[in-house]
Specification:
Length: 255
């Protein structure tokens, strides 16, 4: 069961948790589905769903009893998507990179304290399930998250690490982790294998704007068993070059 963070409203957080239960594959859910995915009791789920339904954020099929996202969510998503300029600059590069490699290529941003993929071009059928559009992932694991985290403040990084440790009952060695982030900053590329997802390999590069601020990261994901060392070296250069191209399109002078 979710508990409210300091300075937040628990009922609002719980309602948002219900919205996060929907995915591209699970676009219709029953009350039992919500209960299982949030660990909230049935009465609370029913009350929250009714509130969301009144505001039109979800709808209920009266015949099947299943819930789905409401039409206002389309408009909200459009407002967000049309105001992320980096997506417009990045998409042609993502499309070309996926075509050239046959792999899934994505564009990631930091949202609150999570990594979110806001654009992607699917490649291999085997890997696309590991890269979900709009889903919040931890920044701590995987090349895509570490690329973004490497350019954050030390306080932000430490907060992310502590949160991961608390949620996963795992202690992360600070010296080796910060050394890895230092290497990512200097090389402007990150490579991970069997890190966030076993059997998956990810390569990622940062994207900057004209003010030299990190705005996103571009990543390529594939199956570890298919990516030979030669391919990983080749894709590392392609990803770094993709980050450079998108950054320059955003007005950044790549060094």
């Amino acid at each position: 069961m979710s508990t409210a963070s300091k300075g937040t409203v628990q009922s609002v957080e719980r309602a948002i948790d219900l919205l996060y239960c929907f995915t591209l594959n699970d676009y219709e859910l029953s009350i039992n589905d919500f209960v299982e995915r949030t660990n909230l009791n049935r009465t609370t789920v029913f009350r929250l769903l009714n509130s969301l339904k009144v505001k039109g954020l979800i709808t209920r099929n009266e015949q099947s009893g299943l819930y789905r996202l409401g039409l206002p969510m389309i408009g909200m998503g459009q407002i967000v998507s049309e105001n992320i300029d980096v997506r417009k600059e990045a998409f042609p590069v993502l499309k070309q990179l996926s075509k050239e490699t046959g792999e899934t290529v994505g564009l990631n941003i930091i949202q609150a304290n999570r990594r979110v993929c806001v654009e992607k071009v699917d490649g291999s059928e085997d890997i696309r399930q590991f890269v979900r559009l709009g889903y919040p992932y931890s920044l701590v694991k995987g090349a895509s998250g570490k690329t973004l985290l490497a350019f954050c403040s030390k306080a932000f990084i430490e907060h992310a690490l502590r949160e991961w440790e608390d949620l996963n009952n795992e202690t992360i060695d600070r010296a080796s982790y910060f050394e890895e982030l230092d290497n990512i900053r200097s090389q402007k590329v990150a490579v991970s294998e069997n890190d966030r997802v076993f059997g998956a390999c990810s390569i990622s590069a940062p994207i900057f704007d004209a003010n030299k601020n990190l705005v996103a990261g571009v990543s390529l994901s594939g199956l570890s068993m298919k990516l030979t060392e030669n391919l990983k070296e080749k894709y590392t250069e392609l990803i770094r070059d993709a980050g450079k191209k998108i950054s320059e399109a955003m007005g950044y002078e790549w060094e």
